[in-house]
Amino acid sequence: MGRKNTIFLVLIVALITNEAMAEQHVVGGKQGWDASTDFNSWVSGQTFKVGDQLVFKYSSGLHSVVELGGESEYKNCDLGNTVNSMNSGNDVVKLNKPGTRYFACGTLGHCGQGMKLKITTVSGTSSPASSSSSSSSSSPTSSSVSQCFSSLVFIVALLIVSLLNQF
Ligand SMILES: [Cu+2]
After folding, report:
1. Which of 90, 105, 116, 137 has the fewest CB atoms within 10 Å of its CB?
2. What pTM does this model have?
3. CATH assignment of 23-138, given 3.40.50.720, 3.40.50.150, 3.30.1360.120, 2.60.40.420?
4. Near ion ligand 1, which residues have CB within 5 Å?
5. Which residues cross the membrane (predicted)?
6. Ligand 1 centre and the CA of 112: distance in Å?
């Protein structure tokens, strides 16, 4: 019985930690993936880290999501050479490595109306060079990393305890 409780606790902590480490970015915020949303200003308020997810929310059938191959396709709304396409209305894209990715709506004309997105994913451990204006001594990046690390230590400790309880 003690063993079951411990395993249960470990699972809960693991879920909470996973939630804290990986962020879900709902594209466009409350307005979602829509022609009226200003995606440039939405992007400027976000930090995309490796492990985070993009969620495109929209009315299925009205819009779709295509991933574009590069900068020129993004600039010219060239949808003839797409990397990936989704149309569920609740599409999740995992940002699994650093770099720039380009998305657009696949519906004719919508990309030209502004339904396109350029995001740059940064590695979670890099120092925040862009936000140097802050006078605070503790950067948010380092605190979240150490929080993440201490949670991992906690999980490992709980796992060891649960293993010991088995014998
Ligand atoms: Cu659209």
Report:
1. 137
2. 0.67
3. 2.60.40.420
4. 63, 105, 107, 110, 115
5. 144-164
6. 10
